[in-house]
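Collaborator request log, item 7. Partner lab (contact: R.S.) asked for a structural prediction of sn-glycerol-3-phosphate transport system permease protein UgpE to inform their binding assays.
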Amino acid sequence: MAAPSMSAPLSDSSPVTAPNRTLLGIAIVLAILMMVPLLWLVGLSIKDNGELMLGTEAVFQAPYTVVNFANILRSSAVFGWLLNSFVVAVGQTIGVLTLSSLAGYAFARLEFPFRRALFVIVLFGLAVPEQAVIIARHQMFNWMSLHNTYLGLMLPGMSSAFGVFLMTQFFRAIPKEIDEAALLDNASPFKIFWKIMLPLTLPAQATLGIFTFLQGWNDYWWPLISATKPEMYTVTIGIASTQVNFAQSEGLGFLAAQAVFASLPVLIVYLVFQRNIVTAVSGGAVK
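Returned to partner:
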């Protein structure tokens, strides 16, 4: 009896086809185009301000210097802005994760009056732009004397309609049998949420936390309105305040170095949580 043929390939990997090469080439070109402004900013940050005054084309010519970054380290204002941005971003992240998890669990797993109507109202928050409520918010925060405070900068970012929707969808995807098994063991609703449900939502919480932190760090609109004292500036407002008049600033290279320096925490967050960010963008946070 003849032995079975062993001519089947050991690997099912196939070579890259022509359409795939085309898409890969387009993706590479688009990535390069998106990186050009960043590379231009980095180039400006390592050039002498005197050379840049003669023309920004000097960015393509040596020599390069790190004196602009050294000047940042000599200034305490930038570190104050970074501290303010860090406090605001972390506070917003903690608030959004706490409130969105509680609201998402309630909408997904509990029964209470007007549950569907309230959830629809929350979803309306996704359609209302921030600029539409900015006057009412400003007057309310002014009445409560919350302007130029950390709490005033954090509170608006803690109400996240997207966060409630994300956590609600994730809680709904968890099988109901888990709740029933916990109820048979006489577990309270809060204990089910804290001990069983919340640990199962760590992927969604990581995704929501990353996006909330990045949004809080890069926020410009509300800090511009609420933070009127220089000591309460976030990094976005602080850097913008130095760019009002280039003639009175310390130079274009120094401004570019400030922008690069302020972007480093965001870059670190992305590198550390890159897998979670890719999962969220690809839609894998909610299954």
